[in-house]
Amino acid sequence: MDVNLSSLHWVYLAFIVFIVACLIKRRDTTMICVAGILALGLIATASVGDSVSGLFKSFVYAAKELLGTIFIISIIVSMSRVLIRTGINEKMVAPLTRFMRTPALAFWGIGIIMMVSSWFFWPSPGVALIGAVLLPAAARVGLPALGAAVAMNLFGHGIALSGDYIIQGAPKLTADAAGLPVSQVMEASVPLVIVMGAVTTIVAYWMMVRDRKKGTWRDGLVAQETPASPSAETLVLPAAVKRWAAIIIPLLFVADVVAMFVLDLQGDDATAIVGGTAILILLALTLIAHRNKGMEEMTSYLVDGFQFGFKVFGPVIPIAAFFYLGDSAFVPLFGNHLPQGSQGIVNDLGVALANGVPVNNVVGAITLTVTGAITGLDGSGFSGISLAGSVAHMFAIAIGHGAATLTALGQIAAIWVGGGTLIPWALIPAAAICGVSPFELARRNLKPVLIGLAATTVVAMFLI
């Protein structure tokens, strides 16, 4: 199928190149995205007024698309705050510390617990939820603080966040940009997440054991900092209340997972049941902990959570607004000014790529890994995965298949690089609670993550 590329297509492609260049230079991309939206609007409508108003509308469009994701993360964080203040988090994790009898069990135990908690609470709150309880237990059996930080980091910000199977924030962003159902991207990501997680964590553990035996291990300790959680006073609850809450809360989330399978809930519906459960837990715990001040404190926790959510997703909205114009948002915002027969800017570019460049599984997989890694260089992990989804869509059209696998591969590369395993300023939560240098943690993660990305890319070549 032939397609006529207009100036809109070339301008859109040029701005993608600009965005990638900014990411490589570790510069912020918001202004480039704003300029790109204005340029596309001006070319399409030939009206300054329409392009300026379209800029605001594109932000609103992106915010509406992302609102569910922002809300679920904000609510989960709100709930985690009250769990930390009441000490219920300690009760939830404490029974698991008895299994940490050796450094090896401590490394893998901390990692698996962090992974599971990050699926439900997201990694940053998860670090605060479990770190203070598990770290002393790990230290007692001889696991160094940097080793604990590596485990928390790779399992939480790496494995759990790159798949994001419960909250589904990451696959929502990439699936939207690629024009695919969220469930399709999540299904395609499973083997890639398993390969990436297994290779990276095994290599990291082996390197830790090797370096400690050789005497080349560096602890990277710094002055202990306060973990990323509110500095509010601790709330006193009766021991029985904490004990029952520590049992009931995990069971409620397990019930949510069972409901997802039994009722076949996916995407927004799956996110909604987790979010609703978190709100009810937040409400109940706030009333129990604060009693007659519960109504006011409920609002305070929600405000705290939404501040966190919008701080994380604030940089994402203008970037997502630009990439939505490549597919579903262009006609609603600027009218049908695309060439006749166009299937959207990204689709048209993909067809042109297929007609003009020899593209195959190997080229597609390598390109998506590199694209995802580049988008993660800003230290967010989320801000650029719309680009990964958009590029995956173009290459899938060019190859003729493999859209979901390519999208999942770009998502995994972006999250592992930028979500908190390689970029030092994204490592601060895990590094702070373990009392180690984020730069030393990034250095320790570098080889395992790069080896994992290489192995995952090779596997993706066969799955596309």
Automatic annotation (TrEMBL):
Question: What parts of the sequence cross the membrane?
Answer: 6-24, 31-49, 61-84, 105-122, 188-208, 244-263, 269-289, 301-325, 362-382, 422-439, 446-463
Is Membrane one of the keywords? yes
UniProt keywords (A-Z) are: Membrane, Transmembrane, Transmembrane helix
Domain of life, per lineage: Bacteria
Q: Does the keyword Membrane apply?
A: yes
Write down what this protein is called.
Answer: Transporter
